[in-house]
Amino acid sequence: MESRGVVMGEIIKAYMVPHPPIIVPEVGKGQETPASATINAYRNIARQIRDLAPDLIIMTTPHGTVYADYIHISPDSVLKGDFRAFGASGVKLSFQNDIQLLEKIIRKAEAAGIEAGTLGQTESFLDHGALVPLYFIASEYQRFKLIRISIADLPALDLYKFGQCIADAVAESDRRVVFVASGDLSHRLKDDGPYGYDPHGPEFDRLLVETVRQADFEKLLNMDEKLCSRAGECGLRSFIMMAGALNGLGISTTVHSYEGPFGVGYMVAEVNIGQPNPERDLIGSYEHARSLKLKEIRDNEDPYVALARLTLETYIRTGKRISVPGGLPREMLEERAGVFVSLKKHGQLRGCIGTIAPTCSCVAEEIIQNAISAGTEDPRFMPVRESELDDMVYSVDVLGKPEPIKDTSELDVIRYGVIVTSGFRRGLLLPNLEGVDTVEQQVEIAMQKAGIRKGEPYTLERFEVVRHK
Fold it and tell me: To bridge 198 with a disulfide, which of 74, 188, 209, 365 should be the other Cys (CB 3.0-4.6 Å)?
């Protein structure tokens, strides 16, 4: 692309591809035949990429260095790997990294408030999520540099926005780029598959393949989390990053193949990229709808939640802990109780810290203490940044007094939270949590939080909560 004599980089084509090592002939040794549709589709797109002759391939993969809230980009100047883990150590691939563009992507992500970079690499070789696509591409074309990006367990919108950061960085370069999003669909299509059969597996695959055929990438952002989890997929986040890189552009798609011969869904799809199309600015429309929803939530917050929000926003912006404000209900000032403060961002947990029993003089002080801790001290997450505050949704659980119970028959995942105790180890799980559907799950998670192993003796307590949203 050229604008007023200035050469601008662009993403010229995109693909969604699977990564089963068995389809590499040196690995499969004849067992790859049932996946012939996938292999033929791969050869077709490899020839397309040869004819496009890109300067750079950007590869997203679910099997690199993966973190919950940080997108890792491989930092090595040479990106290499082989198939030794799959019995074919002689099949080796090596590509030059594009460090200059990589650094530009990181700067764009930082400006957008998305944690991304080259820190924390856990392995120095290309994973099979990248190697399988690269094997077929390199069989036809090798004159390209490579940037490998791992997925993260971030909200879908953040992954989509990161894709936009990639596109913005490319536009400021002179690179002609092909974007390859690596990911398998459900791993639960057959009883003899790697994770057995679950009816949600075929359902997920049908939905995703149809979504791609319709080029309706907005649906990728709104896929049901429970369906995705039960389907056992690994490609959605990779595909969402790719979709974000094409935000605001006209697109058309072709699904070259879909099959699941080994109990895992394999889709090969091509995305053709057209001219700018404001109707496909999903970030703008999504942000507008979300801002209206957040305003409605805030307008209806009760004093418990409003106090948690005021506390964390003040602390993040000024570094100061607020005093108990005036005008609070009497029970917040006179009663004492354990309190949990939970934070969500784009529907996903962003922090949760609480106290089983009261540690402060009143419920209001307990909320102030735990709101700060939930936003800055939950070891599962990076501290909340100021740029995230407008996206936070808060809830406050005020705990009733725990009571001992004999066994799990006295539990109810909707009504009661559970406390599991073994010696000095104690784990708590709140009631009525999304994704916790059985008492067995509830107890197991509480045991894991306490570090109590299966088979160890433990006692149970239950408690009720008043949940404020």
Answer: 188
Q: Which of 1-10, 119-128, 154-163, 204-213 is modeled with the greatest confidence?
A: 204-213
- Fold category of 400-469 in CATH: Dna Ligase; domain 1 (3.30.1490)
Domain boundaries, the chain: 2-279, 301-393, 400-469
- In words, the CATH class of domain 2-279 is alpha beta
* pLDDT one-digit tens code per residue, 384-432: 999 899 889 999 999 999 999 999 999 999 999 999 999 999 999 999 9
Mean of pLDDT values over 44-54: 98
User: What is the number of alpha carbons within 13 Å of residue 304 lying toward its C-beta?
Assistant: 21
Distance CA 336, CA 332 (A): 8
Bridging pattern class, strands 116-117 and 71-72: parallel
Q: Exposure pattern of 58-86 as b/e (b: 16+ CB <10 Å)? A: bbbbbbbbbbebbbbbbbeeebebbbeeb
Write down the mean pLDDT value for the chain: 94
- Return phi, psi of residue 336, to 5°: -120, 140
Global pTM reads 0.78
Q: Tally the residues of the chain.
A: 469
**How deeply is 449 buried, as exposed, middle or buried, from its count of CB atoms within 10 A (0-12, 13-18, 19+)?**
middle
User: 277: how many CB neighbours lie within 10 A of its CB?
Assistant: 12
Residue 3 has pLDDT above 70, yes or no: no
In 296-338 the beta strands, taken as DSSP E runs, fall at none
| CATH 3.30.700.20 at 301-393, yes or no | yes
| pLDDT tens readout for residues 341-377 | 999 988 889 999 999 999 999 999 999 999 999 999 9
Strand partners, 447: none
CA count, 13 A, side-chain hemisphere, 253:
21
171 HSE (CA, 13 A, CB side): 10
Among 205, 206, 188, smallest CA distance to 197 is for: 188
What average pLDDT score do residues 431-456 get? 92
